[in-house]
UniProtKB/TrEMBL annotation:
Keyword Transmembrane: yes
Protein name in UniProt: STAS domain-containing protein
Matching Pfam families: STAS
Transmembrane intervals: 13-45
Species this chain originates from: Auxenochlorella protothecoides
GO biological process: transmembrane transport
InterPro entries from the UniProt entry: SLC26A/SulP_fam (IPR001902), STAS_dom (IPR002645), STAS_dom_sf (IPR036513)
Record-level GO cellular component terms: membrane
Swiss-Prot/TrEMBL keywords: Membrane, Transmembrane, Transmembrane helix
Top-level taxon of the source organism: Eukaryota
Residue span, STAS domain: 69-192
């Protein structure tokens, strides 16, 4: 059972092993406490250090997948699409900020080297964020300001109703512009690509 669990989920195996050893050495109550504490620590680590995935389009389709996992996926021109694999909140913001900056810096270097279209949009998929805290609102606002200073528009895709409500109360919907908040990722991509074409850009 332990070997199968390790193959399926190493983190669950670690919790199981911790519970087993603690129960055997100290007692049932300590085993339950130790495994529960480890489970909480693993959950917090996952929330605090989410994957920041840059997506590309699979050729001939409207499917977008992580560029680092799908070598055949093509990076779009004129915009970058990011998916964050955890809620945007106080615990995860610094890691997300660092990940986004690294990807944007890499894109800038690649664009200069290959003489690509300048970056005009950053699309952020919020499907993993059912709600926002105050830190998330502030981060979105700061990110919008930073990108706008570089001539880049921030587009949010798939925000929940609760996220929209929070952003409205914070005045973020007005700052971003309703056109830069789209119901899902595909709507955001269609809006961005149509805007790029209207500006004479190749997409």
């Amino acid at each position: 059972e332990g070997a199968r669990l390790f193959r399926v989920s190493p983190s669950d195996f670690l919790v199981w092993l911790t519970a087993f050893l603690t129960v055997a050495l100290v007692g049932v109550e300590w085993g339950i406490c130790a495994s529960a504490a480890l489970s909480v620590a693993i959950m917090l680590a996952r929330v605090s250090f989410p994957a920041v995935l840059r997506l590309g389009r699979l050729p001939g389709t409207n499917y977008f997948r992580p560029l680092r996992q799908y070598r055949g996926a093509l990076a779009p021109r004129g915009y970058i699409l990011f998916s964050i694999a955890a809620p945007v909140c106080f615990a995860s913001i610094e890691h997300i900020r660092t990940g986004l900056k690294a990807e944007l810096d890499a894109q800038e270097v690649a664009a200069e080297k290959d003489e690509e279209e300048p970056l005009q949009f950053v699309v952020l998929d919020l499907s993993a964020s059912p709600t926002f805290d105050a830190a998330a609102v502030q981060w979105i606002d700061e990110t919008r300001d930073e990108l706008e200073g570089q001539g880049i528009s921030l587009v949010l895709a798939n925000p929940s109703q609760q996220v929209l409500h929070i952003m409205k109360r914070a005045g973020l919907v007005h700052k971003l512009g309703v056109q830069n908040i789209q119901a899902d990722v595909m709507d955001a991509i269609l809006y961005v690509e149509e805007t790029l074409r209207s500006r004479g850009c190749m997409v």
